[in-house]
Design a protein that fits this description.
The structure holds two protein chains of two kinds.
Chain A (H helix, E strand, L loop, with lengths): L6 H19 L24 E5 L15 H5 L5 E7 L5 E11 L8 H5 L5 E3 L15 E2 L1 H4 E3 H7 L1 H28 L2 H7 L1
Parallel strand pairs in A: 1-6
Antiparallel strand pairs in A: 1-4, 2-3, 3-5
Helix pairs in contact in A: 5-6
Chain B lengths: L22 E5 L11 E7 L2 E8 L7 H7 L5 H6 L6 H16 L5 H29 L5 H21 L8 E2 L2 E2 L7 H23 L3 H7 L7 H6 L5 H5 L6 H4 L20 H25 L20 E9 L2 E9 L5 E7 L1 H6 L2 H5 L4 H11 L3 H5 L1
Antiparallel strand pairs in B: 1-2, 2-3, 4-5, 6-7, 7-8
Classes of the chains: A alpha+beta, B alpha+beta.
Chain lengths: 194, 384
C-alpha cells in the first residue's frame, strides 16, 4: 500500500462508499423497518409489562391469582397494589378485590413472574401503550390486566406449554390425594363436611 | 501593518486586551457529546484549559439506599441501571459479590453463559465507544452508525435470551435465570464470527485516518505510575502500559480456563486508549469462541441458591469483575437479614473520571471532549 499523504482518509472514504452502495443491495443492510406498517417479530422471551392469566372464558372465576401478595412484597419499585376480596361475613376469599399495577413505575424486571407460586402473573409483549394522560391510563386495574390463557399461549408458546403441563400435573396430584382422603374417610363425615 | 483597534465596545471605556485574562465556560449539562447530563466548569486562557471542575449528580437516583431498603433479589434489576450499556456485567458483579458473601457455588453451565454474555457486553460497549469518541471529535453519524449497527445484533441476542435489550436482569445467585433458547448459540456464533470483519472495517475507516491521528495522538498522555495512584482501572489503565486485568489477576468465574492476551498501550494518550478497545474486542472474540465451543449441558441454577427470601449469613464481601469500563465492584455487608445492611458500589466510571482535570490541563478546549470520550464514562454509573 502506498502511503501518500491523505491515504488514510481515502481508505476510509472507500469503506463509506462500499457501505453506502451496499445499503441499497445487500439484504442484511436494509435494517429499517417501516413501522407501523411493518411490525418487528419479537423473540419469544421478549417482555414489556406484567398481566394476569385466567383459565376458561370468565376472567373473574378463572382467575389464577389467589391474592397471596408475594408479588406485591417482592416488587422492587413497589408498583403492585392488591386488596384481598372478602365475602359478606368478612371472611377472606382467595381472590383479589383490587389488583393494580402502575406501569409508569414498573421497570419490567420480571421478578413478580419469578416469585408467583400460582403461575398467575406473566409478562406481556404489548409495547403500544402510549396514553394522553400520565396517571389513569397507565394505572392498570384488574379488568385491563386479566388476559386469557390462550393469549399467553400465543405470545410465549414454550413457557406456556411448560406452565400448563405443571398446572395439569399438580391438579392430577391434588385430585389423587383428595380421592385417597375420600376413600379413607368414613362415609357420614364427608357428607357433613360438604 | 494595521494597528489593533483601540476599543471593542462603542463608546465608554475602551476594553483593552489584558494579560492573564481568563474566561469561565460552563460546558454542559446538555451538550450532546458529554455522554449524559454532566457539566464541566472550564477556565480558559485563550483556548487553553487552566482549570476544570467537573459537576455531576444530575442523574443521582439513590441506588445504594434503595438497594438497602429492598430484598437481595430486588437489587438485581437496579444494577442494570448503573451502567446501562453493560447491564449483564453489572448483574455479574453483584451476583459474584453475593455468591462470595453466602458461599454459593455457581452451576457449571451458568459460568459459561456468564462468560459468553459478559464478553458480548464488552463487544457491544466497545463498538459503541468507537462510535461515540468519533462523535466527540465532530464526526457525528457515520462511525456511530457503524458501531450501533453491530451493537444492534448483540442487543437482539440479549433480547432473545433475557427478554430485554438493555435492562436484562438475567443473573441470579448461583446461576442464571433461564437457559439459552434453542438456536441461540448458533445465532451468537454467527454474530461473533462476523465481528472481526466489523473491526477490520472500523480500522480501515479510522485507525489510519490522518485527522483522527492528529486529534488523538499525543493528547493527554498518562504516566503508568499516575494511572495506578489515581485508582484508574480497565482499558484506561492498560493503555498506560500497566498489565492489570482482573480477568487474569482474579480469574473470577472460569476465566482462568481461557487463553487470551491482555493488550497494553505505551504512552497512555487518547490514541492508545482508543486502540486498546479495538484490540481488547479482538481478544474478547477469542474468549467467546472458546467459551461457545466448550459450553457443557446441565442445570443453569444451583438448586441451593435461594432467590426469594434469600438471607446470607452475617458478614461482608467485596466482589469485583473486569467490566468493559474498568473494575466494577460491589461491597456488601449482611447482618443476616433479608436486606443488605450496606450496599456499596465501586463504579469504574466515577473513579476514572477523577483524572479528568489532570488530563485536560494545558490542552485546548476542543480536546476536552475527546479526553472525556476516551475515558469512556456512563453517567448512570457516575451518579448512581
Amino acid at each position: 500500500m502506498s502511503n501518500f499523504p491523505g491515504s488514510g482518509i481515502v481508505k476510509g472514504l472507500a469503506v463509506t462508499a462500499r457501505n453506502f452502495v451496499g445499503s441499497y443491495f445487500e439484504k442484511d443492510r436494509l435494517t429499517t423497518e417501516q413501522y407501523p406498517e411493518e411490525r418487528p417479530v419479537l423473540p419469544e422471551n421478549s417482555r414489556s409489562f406484567p398481566f394476569l392469566v385466567y383459565d376458561g372464558d370468565d376472567p373473574e372465576s378463572g382467575m389464577r391469582c389467589v391474592s397471596c401478595k408475594i408479588c406485591e412484597k417482592e416488587c422492587p419499585p413497589q408498583c403492585i397494589f392488591i386488596i384481598q376480596d372478602r365475602d359478606a361475613g368478612g371472611k377472606a376469599l382467595k381472590r383479589p378485590k383490587v389488583f393494580d399495577i402502575d406501569i409508569s413505575v414498573c421497570m419490567s424486571c420480571q421478578i413478580c413472574v419469578e416469585v408467583c407460586p400460582f403461575e398467575s402473573i406473566r409478562m406481556d409483549q404489548d409495547y403500544e401503550l402510549s396514553a394522553f394522560d400520565r396517571f389513569a391510563p397507565l394505572l392498570l386495574d384488574k379488568s385491563r390486566l386479566l388476559k386469557p390463557n390462550s393469549y399467553y399461549r400465543r405470545i410465549h408458546p414454550t413457557e406456556a406449554a411448560e406452565t400448563d403441563a405443571r398446572v395439569e400435573s399438580e391438579r392430577k396430584k391434588k385430585a389423587a390425594t383428595a380421592a385417597a382422603k375420600e376413600a379413607a374417610k368414613p362415609a357420614p363425615a364427608t357428607e357433613g363436611a360438604s | 501593518m494595521m494597528a489593533a483597534p483601540a476599543a471593542f465596545s462603542p463608546g465608554g471605556t475602551p476594553v483593552l486586551p489584558e494579560k492573564n485574562r481568563t474566561i469561565d465556560v460552563s460546558l454542559g449539562p446538555q451538550h450532546p457529546s458529554t455522554h449524559g447530563v454532566f457539566r464541566m466548569n472550564v477556565t480558559l486562557d485563550g483556548e487553553t484549559v487552566v482549570k476544570l471542575q467537573p459537576v455531576f449528580g444530575y442523574l443521582h437516583r439513590n441506588h445504594e439506599k434503595i438497594a438497602e431498603g429492598n430484598s437481595w433479589l430486588a437489587a438485581m434489576p437496579y444494577t442494570d441501571r448503573l451502567d446501562y450499556f453493560c447491564s449483564l456485567t453489572n448483574n455479574w458483579a453483584y451476583a459474584l459479590a453475593v455468591e462470595k458473601l453466602a458461599g454459593i457455588e455457581v452451576a457449571e453451565r451458568a459460568e459459561y453463559i456468564r462468560v459468553i454474555v459478559g464478553e458480548l457486553t464488552r463487544l457491544q460497549n466497545h463498538s459503541a465507544f468507537l462510535g461515540f469518541i468519533l462523535g466527540d471529535m465532530g464526526a457525528w453519524g457515520t462511525a456511530l452508525m457503524y458501531g450501533f449497527r453491530e451493537r444492534e445484533k448483540i442487543l437482539d441476542l440479549f433480547e432473545s435470551l433475557t427478554g430485554a435489550r438493555m435492562m436484562c436482569n438475567y443473573m441470579r445467585f448461583g446461576g442464571c435465570r433461564c437457559d439459552l433458547p434453542p438456536g441461540w448459540l448458533g445465532a451468537a456464533r454467527k454474530v461473533v464470527d462476523g465481528f472481526p470483519a466489523f473491526l477490520d472495517e472500523m480500522e480501515a475507516l479510522l485507525t489510519g485516518n490522518e485527522i483522527l491521528l492528529a486529534r488523538l495522538q499525543g493528547v493527554a498522555p498518562l504516566a503508568p505510575a499516575r494511572a495506578i495512584n489515581s485508582g484508574m482501572s480497565g482499558p484506561g489503565l492498560r493503555a498506560s502500559g500497566v498489565d492489570y486485568d482482573i480477568r487474569k489477576v482474579d480469574g473470577y468465574g472460569i476465566y482462568s480456563r481461557f487463553k487470551f492476551r491482555v493488550p497494553r498501550g505505551r504512552s497512555g494518550d487518547c490514541y492508545d486508549r482508543f486502540m486498546l478497545r479495538v484490540l481488547e474486542a479482538r481478544e474478547s472474540v477469542e474468549i467467546l469462541k472458546q467459551a461457545m465451543s466448550g459450553i457443557p449441558d446441565g442445570p443453569i441454577l444451583n438448586p441451593k441458591g435461594r432467590q426469594r427470601g434469600f438471607h446470607p449469613p452475617a458478614g461482608e464481601a467485596y466482589g469485583r469483575i473486569e467490566g468493559p469500563k474498568g473494575e466494577l465492584g460491589f461491597y456488601l455487608i449482611s447482618d443476616g437479614g433479608t436486606r443488605p445492611y450496606r450496599f456499596r458500589i465501586r463504579p469504574p466510571s466515577l473513579i476514572n473520571l477523577t483524572l479528568l482535570e489532570e488530563l485536560c490541563l494545558g490542552t485546548k478546549l476542543a480536546d476536552v471532549m475527546v479526553i472525556l470520550g476516551s475515558i469512556d464514562i456512563v453517567l448512570g454509573e457516575v451518579d448512581r
